[in-house]
Amino acid sequence: MKRSRGAAPLLEIRNLSVTFAGRAGAPPVEAVRGLSLSLDRGETLALVGESGSGKSVTALSILQLLPYPLAAHGAGSSIRFAGEELVGATPERLRRVRGNRIAMVFQEPMTSLNPLHTLERQIGETLLIHKHMGPAAARARTLELLRLVGLPDAESRLGAYPHQLSGGQRQRVMIAMAIANEPDILIADEPTTALDVTIQAHILQLLKDLRDR
Hints:
Elements (H helix, E strand, L loop, with lengths): L10 E10 L8 E11 L15 H8 L8 E3 L4 E4 L2 E2 L5 H7 L4 E4 L3 H4 L6 H12 L4 H14 L5 H4 L9 H13 L5 E4 L8 H16 L1
Parallel strand pairs: 6-7
Antiparallel strand pairs: 1-2, 1-3, 1-4, 4-5
């Protein structure tokens, strides 16, 4: 989908740099230098590079999830979402964006899902917080999301815990959580890294189908 002439991109990154403070007096480590990109609504954009090239750091920078102040952005770094600057945005502003208008599927779902919470609670919480749904509506929406991402026997899985699922099933749950609030942007940080080839293909096709909805 191409934006109309003169319209601003949905996401625009300009001259992004990220450095991390060195340990024990060591010099700072430069993780990203002078990155610029733009993303339009309905568009898919891939960052490709070897391990350690700054892909995940860039993704985390968009949502300002880096370990600040150990991490810092250089002068002139800009990340604009829907025309608003995110670098240096207030915590309140970032809370309204994170998980609501911009969502992220992390690389390792086992460390991102709460091992003590059921699937219903984990997905339902984001609906209660951002959509202000009641328990019954949140349960119905959670079930709808689990079916949408192709989780087998979705209704019987509502009370399941992350350790009771396979790697591919956990990744589907992460995607369900990420799309629960129908975000404008979905960031996927190597979502198929730990999965076998067949499951990788299913997850990538699922993401494509969700984009086209």
